[in-house]
């Protein structure tokens, strides 16, 4: 009877350690993904800050639906230039999951958008994204 109890306790302890180990691995993986997402967002903001003489043009730009292209998520981004001469756009695109959580951030350039006309570019995620995703315009500058 003692041997059976000792074996059962050892098995329970091993299972608890294994489950805790899995949680730790999952937590670490989540931290790595969170860190990568934060790094991408920071790099994207740095790139946006490099644009000189840009004006806020978020209203000129729209994001289409996302789709998978190979191992990445992509979205067509359309800039429509309301001004009287060609303009370049630098656009920060955020990819979010179905709950609105930030998954990735990229910066896209759409150059030579003619007056009064739309022009598209493709935003491509930095890494593989899983699940349902949407693309949003985080910031857009016309210059």
Keywords:
7 strands; globular; single chain; 143 residues; 4-stranded antiparallel β-sheet; alpha+beta; 1 helix; 3-stranded antiparallel β-sheet
Write the layout of secondary structure elements.
Elements: H1 2-49, E1 55-56, E2 61-69, E3 72-80, E4 87-97, E5 102-113, E6 118-124, E7 133-142
Antiparallel strand pairs: 1-7, 2-3, 3-6, 4-5, 4-7
Describe this structure in words.
The chain has 143 residues and is of the alpha+beta class. Helix content is 34%, strand content 42%. It has one helix spanning 2-49; strands spanning 55-56, 61-69, 72-80, 87-97, 102-113, 118-124, 133-142. β2 and β3 (72-80) form a beta hairpin. The chain is globular. The protein starts with a helix and ends with a strand. The model is unreliable at 1-20 and 24-30 (pLDDT under 50).
What's the quick description here?
With 143 residues, this protein is α+β, with helices and mostly antiparallel strands. The protein is built from one helix and seven strands. A hairpin with a 4-residue loop joins strand 4 (87-97) and strand 5.
């Amino acid at each position: 009877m003692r041997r059976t109890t000792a074996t059962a306790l050892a098995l329970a302890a091993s299972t608890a350690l294994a489950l805790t180990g899995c949680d730790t691995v999952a937590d670490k993986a989540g931290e790595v993904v969170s860190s990568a997402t934060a790094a991408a967002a920071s790099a994207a903001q740095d790139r946006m800050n490099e644009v000189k003489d840009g004006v806020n043009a978020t209203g000129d730009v729209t994001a289409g639906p996302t789709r998978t292209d190979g191992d990445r998520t992509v979205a067509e981004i359309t800039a429509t230039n309301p001004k009287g001469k060609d303009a370049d756009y630098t656009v920060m695109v955020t990819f979010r999951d179905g709950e609105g959580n930030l998954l990735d951030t990229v910066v896209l350039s759409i150059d030579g958008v003619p007056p009064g006309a739309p022009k598209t570019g493709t935003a491509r995620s930095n890494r593989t994204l899983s699940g349902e995703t949407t693309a949003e315009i985080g910031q857009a500058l016309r210059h």
